[in-house]
Amino acid sequence: MPLRLVIVGRPNVGKSTLFNRLAGRKLAIVHDQPGVTRDRREGHGRFGGLDLALVDTAGFETAKSGIEADMRAQTLEAVARADVCLFLIDARDGLTPLDETFASLLRKAGRPVVIAANKAEGVAKFPGVLEGFSLGFGEPVEISAEHNEGMGELFDAIMKVAGPKALAEEAEDETGEPPLRIAVVGRPNAGKSTLINALIGDDRLITGPEAGVTRDSIAVDWKWDGRAVRLADTAGMRKKAKVQDGLEKLSVNDSLHAIRFAEVVVVVVDALIAFDKQDLQIADLAEREGRAVVVAVTKWDLVQEKQRKLAELKKSLMFALPQMRGIPLIALSSVTGKGLELLMPAILEVYRDWNALVKTRDLNDWLHHKIERHPPPAVQGRRIKPRYLTQTKTRPPTFVLMCSRAKHLPTSYKRFLINGLREDFELSATPIRFIVKAGKNPYVDGRRGGQENKKK
């Protein structure tokens, strides 16, 4: 089992920077603005001989209500589950009353603590290093997460409190299939975090009535019916023209990254303002990235005429995104739980379609039947002859059609074949990639009586 290392401290001391450093890649958003991290973020890292389960937490606040109170509750829950707490202070600013308040809470929690004074790059001695002794957690380790200084001393300090058992456990490999990666995306305040909390049955993510509570993509590991699942909660994606703030741009880029690395994308739509231009653009983006897509219409408990509204939504989706017709549309309420049981079966259905593999013989039998009944139109007085169809990859299903005069095959006929594949092979819930290629002409290079042989 990996060592669960929870990075804690007041806002803007460099917790996310250190989290990224130990993880070996940029997972958390880093910005000069204090309070960027709100939900606790988890990741895996390798530090020396240690296998780490890293947890990045929100900056500790003393507020008793609002988002700050929720952030504090998330941090304290992470501390309670930690193997080791890495308490970060600012070497340059020295101790603050908030540092001392948090230190007293760490002592009450009774978890092993390593104290590190961040931003201590160079050879200068900073006040926070000496003041850190007064907190009672031993000698502060001088580090610079941004410049990768002091990491060896930090490793020694962690090993001192974790003990050699941490290295022995590190050798154990996890077995079993990888988790199903699901990205939950949508406009701000559509109910993405609330939906994930309802699915897992825990207030894992901070929610609120105001838009923009979630700022970076938070991965939540979960099990559904014995199947490992990794849910990625993402920041709300507004129209590109409205995204001006630098922090919001980072949040949107993090959401796009989550879509690219997901296997299934759940597009969350507010039932009261469903399918405006931004909703459709987000769904279209997921399809263009080749992800399997499910549409979840939230806040369904607020809808009055449910059957009529559902029929309107399905019609709007089919009309606005014809290339995605057949994808599941699930109406649900995260508050009441109504319809929530339908979401995961729909996700697994589109995931199976996304991984579908059709035999080449079945494809060519189907192709010959299609072109007998509906041959491609002649272009410029010459016939186009489809010869061979095969599936070259899955995730999403990708088909290659070999035919004469490939560049002249009309787009309408390609759509006809794609729609036929969806209907006849039950691939309605997944994007389909369809590539048309022309076979090589053996006479072009002169090997069979071309220009080269004529010269001889």
Q: Could you walk me through the main structural features you see in this protein, from its secondary elements to its overall organization?
A:
The protein contains 14 helices and 15 strands. The chain has 456 residues and is of the alpha/beta class. The chain folds into 3 domains: 3-170, 3-Layer(aba) Sandwich (Rossmann fold); 180-354, P-loop containing nucleotide triphosphate hydrolases (Rossmann fold); 360-437, GMP Synthetase, Chain A, domain 3 (2-Layer Sandwich), CATH 3.30.300. Strands 2-3-1-4-5-6 form a 6-stranded mixed beta sheet, sandwiched between helices. Strands 8-9-7-10-11-12 form a 6-stranded mixed beta sheet, with helices on both faces. It starts with a strand and ends with a helix. The relative contact order is 0.08.
Keywords, separated by commas or semicolons:
GMP Synthetase, Chain A, domain 3; 20% strand; alpha/beta; Rossmann fold; 456 residues; 3 domains
